[in-house]
Amino acid sequence: MSMTKFSLNRYKQQIRNDFNSRSNYESEFHRKAAARLVELAKLQAGQRVLDVATGTGLAAIAAARVVGLTGHVLGTDFSAGMLQQARAQAEALGLKNIVFENVDADNQELQERQYDIVLCSSAIVYFTDIPAVLEQWHSALRSEGRVVFSCLAETSPSASVVFRSVVKKYGITIPNPNALLGTPEKCRQILEAAGFEGTEMVPEQFGSYLQDASAVWAGNARSAFGLQDAQWSEEQLNQCRLEYLAEIKKVSTEDGYWNDVTLFFVTAHKARGA
Questions:
Q1: DSSP secondary structure string, the chain?
Q2: Which of 60, 102, 199, 232 fits as disulfide partner to 75, beta carbons 3.0 to 4.6 Å?
C-alpha cells in the first residue's frame, strides 16, 4: 500500500490500538488457526524457526515444542504488551529454545539463510509492503526452506464485507485488506515474484453463526480497516450501525447470520541451492 510517512505512522498506531483493545486476542479462532498452521508446517526436531507477528506466541510456542532443544524459535512482534504475555507463557512452560523480540515486521532486518521455516499466523495482511516482506523472508531462508502463513479469502469474513458495503453508502470507501492474497492464484503470483516456488494452499472454514452482530460492528469500526477517518456525529455513527444490523438480519436464516471465514494456509519453498 502507498502511504506518506504521516499516514504510515497513523496506520501503525491504529493497529496497535486495535490489538491493545482486544481483551480476547487468544480467541478460539486464533488458537485453532495457529495450531493448524504449525501442524501443516511439518516441523522437525532441530529446525530453526522464525515466527513473524507472533502476538502472544501461539504459533511460536507450539513450534518450540516440536523442534525441541536442538532447534530454536524466534518470535517477533511490534506489540510489547503481547510479547510480555508470550514470554510469560514460554517461561511457565519451561521452554529454553525460544526467544521473543520487539520488532516491526515491515522494518525487520534478517540475516541471509538463517532459518528453515518462516511462520506467520493470520497477520500478514497487516504489513504495509507484503511483497517486500516476502522477499526478505525468502532471503532469510536456507536452501529448500519454507514459508508457511495463513491469510483470509478476499470474501472473508463475510460480516466484514457487509460492513464495508454499508459504510460505502455513507461516503467512506474501505479497501478490502484481503484482496492482495485473497485467491489461490494471487498467492501463487506474489510468492513466485518473491522467488518462491511450489506454492500449496489448504483452504479451511473457520466460520460460525454470529452471536452478537453489534459486537462485530464495533470490532470492524475500531479496527485498522475501520472508521478512524470518519468525522461522524454519534447520530450518524448509530444510523450506520443500525443499517449494518438490518443488512445482517436481512441475509440471516433461522439459525442466524453465517459469518464465512475461509482461511488459506499457504506453503511455498525456496529452491535448492538458492
A1: ----HHHHHHHHHHHHHHHHT-TTSS-HHHHHHHHHHHHHHT--TT-EEEEET-TTTHHHHHHHHHH-TTSEEEEEES-HHHHHHHHHHHHHTT--SEEEEE--GGG----TT-EEEEEE-S-GGG-S-HHHHHHHHHHHEEEEEEEEEEEE-TT-SHHHHHHHHHHHTTT-----TTTTT-SHHHHHHHHHHTT-EEEEEEEEE--EE-S-HHHHHHHHHHSTTSSTT----HHHHHHHHHHHHHHHHHT-BTTB-EE--EEEEEEEEPPTT-
A2: 60
pLDDT digits (tens, 9 = 90+) for 209-248: 999 999 999 999 988 889 977 889 999 999 999 999 999 9
Band (151; pLDDT cuts 50, 70, 90): very high
Give me the number of domains the chain comprises.
1
CATH number, residue 183 = 3.40.50.150
Residue 239 covered by a domain = no
> Could you tell me if residue 252 is inside a domain?
no
Q: Is residue 170 part of a domain?
A: no
- Tell me, yes or no, whether 242 lies in a domain: no
